[in-house]
Amino acid sequence: MEREIIPVTKPYLLQEELQSIKEVLDSGWLVQGKKVSEFEKAVADHEQVLYCCATTSCTTALQLAMLAEGMKEGMDVLVPSFTFVATANAVVSTGAVPVILDVDPETFNLSPDAVQACIQKQYHKKQGKWLNKTTGNQLWGMVPVHQFGLCADMERINGIAQKYELHVIEDAACALGAGIGERHIGGFGHTACVSFHPRKSITTGEGGMILTNDPEIYEKVTALRNHGSMVNSDARQKGNGTLLPDYPFHGYNFRMTDIQGAIGCQQIRKLDYILQKRRELAARYDWLFSGDGEKLKIPSVPGGYYHTYQSYVCRLKLGEDLAEAAGKRNRFMEKLQECGIQTRQGTHAIHKLAYYQKRFGIPDADLPGASRCDAETVAFPLFVTMTREEQNYVTEQVKRFLINLQ
User: Fold this and answer.
1) Quick count: other Cβ atoms within 10 Å of Cβ 280?
2) Around 196, how many Cα atoms within 13 Å sit in the side-chain half-sphere?
3) Over the stretch 319-366, which tens digit does the pLDDT of each residue have?
4) What is the model's pLDDT at position 228?
């Protein structure tokens, strides 16, 4: 009998979500409405921020947050290379230029040392602004990514931002519920954006959200997501909806549906349980792989950091040559697939992707950490309903192929 595929992830959805969808369908109000508002409030309460604005995706959340904070053409924005392409794409969508920097291969997150070195080398201060010595672009700020659910080094990033008077937007796509000490994502003094894609801890199918404590940013993003109207659909639903509202500025249709909001309301109630189970499974993986450090580097979590393990991503230590390492890693994943175990490359290094390679032409040697992560990372199966038998099988096959990996 053929073994059932063990997926890299699986959404944790129960009957409550189905019932909530039915209630929305029965109501006849399917677009953004009271369920979205309830979901926004629930996330704000959980993450201890004042305001949340739901959107169609984390990508559009990033785009709106960037526009609301004044990012535009003629500006540079520092971003990590080892991240999903949406981080840089959102910058490009505003007309600004992403400046692609290296990451710390231990944490997979933006390297504060790389940020500091880039500013010192490429920018100079003129008339109170930090300007690119080559292009003249103003340095707007940076977008640290909380990769795979582990917060970036926000203490050092905040220090750099304050020193150079830079904006910071947290790409927290993978990190709902993550934190450092008592502070959650979105609570480090900046706007943060999260994702509800099915690979994330909780899902609405597609969807995202902007988290902020700034009332002006909140007003701007809620208008921008709704074609530029200061009156949202939920307010129109409650009040007199006979006349259309005014649209004082250009905006977009980036609204979440009430169907998604209803799913989200049920999912956020499960978030603490989901995160607990993911951390337990990750800790068990750590234990099961504890004797394989020569070839397998398990996730690194600094003291005081709360990792959500949106993915359990390890590095295979397969030699200095990147092309050879990537080839071995790819064959390793193919072997696991043949055994019914689904894996994924952790994520990509965006400087290696066709559009950004053609536009910027950054060699791997300039971004050694991101290039190594691109070549060596593997995400292993991790989901709430994963059984010990399934996890044991995964680790047994991983160990088997690691021994003979050529």
Assistant:
1) 12
2) 32
3) 889 999 999 999 999 999 999 999 999 999 999 999 999 999 999 999
4) 86
pLDDT more than 70, % of the chain? 96
Decide if pLDDT at 406 tops 70: no
Give the DSSP letter of residue 82. Answer: B
List pLDDT tens digits, range 220-255: 999 999 988 876 665 555 655 666 777 777 889 999
Query: What are 260's two structure tokens?
Result: 């998604």
Q: Which residue is listed with tokens 């991790």?
A: 382
Find residue 110's DSSP bridge partners: 103
How far apart are the C-alpha atoms of 233 and 258, rounded to whole Å? Answer: 11
Q: What are phi and psi of 269, to 5 degrees?
A: -65, -25
* AA letter at 246: D
Q: Is 377 helix (H, G, I), strand (E, B) or coil?
A: strand
C-alpha–C-alpha distance, residues 383 and 386, integer Å: 5
Q: Helix 15-27 crosses helix 258-288 at what angle (to 10 degrees)?
A: 170
| Sign of the dihedral through C-alpha 26, 27, 30, 36 | negative
| pLDDT tens profile 179-206 | 999 999 888 989 999 999 999 999 999 9
155: left (phi over 0), alpha (psi -120 to 50) or beta: alpha
Note the helical H segments in 48-133: 58-68, 86-93, 112-122
Joined together, the tokens standing for residue 380 give 């292993």
Would you tell me the crossing angle of helices 58-68 and 86-93 to the nearest 10 degrees? Answer: 40
**Euclidean distance between the first and the last CA atom of the chain, given in angstroms as a whole number:** 30
The radius of gyration of the chain from alpha carbons, rounded to an integer in Å, stands at 22
| Mean pLDDT score of the chain | 94
The two three-digit tokens of residue 37, written as one number: 């508002």
Q: What is the DSSP string of 247-293?
A: --S---B-PPPHHHHHHHHHHHHHHHHHHHHHHHHHHHHHHHTTT-T
User: 14 or 246: which carries more pLDDT confidence?
Assistant: 14
Q: What is the mean pLDDT of residues 386-404?
A: 95
Which uninterrupted H or E stretch holds 330?
helix 322-338
**8 Å CB contact between 11 and 198:** yes
What are the b/e assignments for 216-252, b being 16+ CB within 10 Å?
ebbebbbbbbbeebbbbbbebbeeeeeeebeeeeebb
d(CA 52, CA 44) in angstroms, rounded, equals: 6
32 vs 97, more confident: 97
Predicted pLDDT of residue 241: 60
